[in-house]
Amino acid sequence: MLNPAMRDSMNMLITFKPKTFREKELIFELTGLPKKHMEDFYDSIYQAKHDSILVDMTLRRSNDYQFYRNLFDPITIAGDTKLN
After folding, report:
1. Sequential DSSP letters for the chain
2. Which residues of 47-70 are buried (b: 16+ CB within 10 A; e: fewer)?
3. Given a cut of 70, is residue 79 above it in pLDDT?
4. Most buried among 46, 49, 58, 61, by the most CB within 10 A?
5. Residue 69 is inside which H or E element, if any?
6. Which of 81, 78, 56, 83 is nearest to 67 (CA)?
7. For residues 67 and 77, is the Cβ–Cβ distance under 8 A?
8. Rounded distance between C-alpha atoms, residue 74 and residue 54, angstroms
9. For residues 10 and 54, is the Cβ–Cβ distance under 8 A?
10. What's the domain count of the chain?
11. What local confidence, expressed as pLDDT, does residue 32 receive?
């Protein structure tokens, strides 16, 4: 999906539901969660046709990327689980 040079120059990534499994994997890698949580992660985000995910890559608030559902609803990722 994104080569490292492009990813390093990005501040925000906004995407609708990924169409391929590879796209899902590449976006999910940013969470740092084990792959066994991937389907639960996407099921909680993409509930309606026009849902989206925003990944804030600026690292302003912490050393981890910040995730938002539909641009404004924060998604909290804690350890081995995802909380909405």
Report:
1. ---HHHHHT-SEEEE---SSHHHHHHHHGGG---GGGHHHHHHHH--STT--EEEE-S-SSSSS-EEEETTTEEEEEETTEEE-
2. eeeeeebbbbbeeeeeeebbbbbe
3. no
4. 46
5. strand 66-69
6. 56
7. yes
8. 9
9. no
10. 1
11. 83
Domain span at residue 15? 4-83
| pTM for this predicted structure | 0.74
70 within 8 A of 25, measured Cβ to Cβ: no
Go through 8-25 and write b for each residue having 16 or more CB atoms within 10 A of its CB, e for each that does not.
Answer: eeeeebeeeebeeeeebe
pLDDT digits (tens, 9 = 90+) for 12-68: 888 899 999 998 998 888 888 888 888 888 988 999 989 999 988 887 777 778 899
Burial level of 76, CB count in 10 A (0-12/13-18/19+)? exposed
Residue with tokens 């080569």: 3
